[in-house]
Prior knowledge:
The chain has a domain at 66-186: Response regulator (Rossmann fold), CATH 3.40.50.2300. It contains seven helices and seven strands, in the order ββαααβαββαβαβα. The chain is an alpha/beta fold and 186 residues long. The protein has helices at 19-22, 32-44, 55-58, 76-88, 122-134, 149-157, 170-185, and strands spanning 2-5, 8-12, 69-73, 93-96, 112-116, 140-144, 162-165. It is globular.
Amino acid sequence: MTLVIGGTTHGKVNLLFPLPILELEGLLAIDEPQVEESVTQAGTQTDNNAPAQPEQERGGSSERIPLDILIIGDDAETASTITSTVTEMGLRVKTLSFKDNIHDYIPGELKAIYLVMSDVNEQGFGTAIKISASCATLPLIAAGPAWTRSKVIKAVKYGVRDILLTPASSDDIKENINNNLLDLAA
């Protein structure tokens, strides 16, 4: 929502309401038998050619697993580099594609969200809009090659707080994560 007074736009307004006022406390409750059932199924289901994997690794879980960093994108190589760097830092990470349902993971306990794009395009910006609308307080970092001035302006307009040029080294990624987590703490 944008605040307009006397025809002058003053910026974005975020409204926060306590859960009891909106009667949304039930959204936080977890049905214990359902969680236990899904956990046992996750460890016992097998494919004909593959061993049993936890649901978290397959990416098909809708239950909330506490995460620190969410990576959404279409550039698997850059996403895996960011994932390994984040994991080395001791943070929990989940990687999704643009086609996955991101609302199962946000806002949760996330500290930052990375949009990893092989080509900076409208699909990435559309995802940025969805994320910004869902959790405007989280740092949203776009990662991709060939950023132009107009693309940076468009990204900032859609809620991106920082840009990571790719390909990026592990040190660049660590610095970017630390800078954005410090901004969140401040």
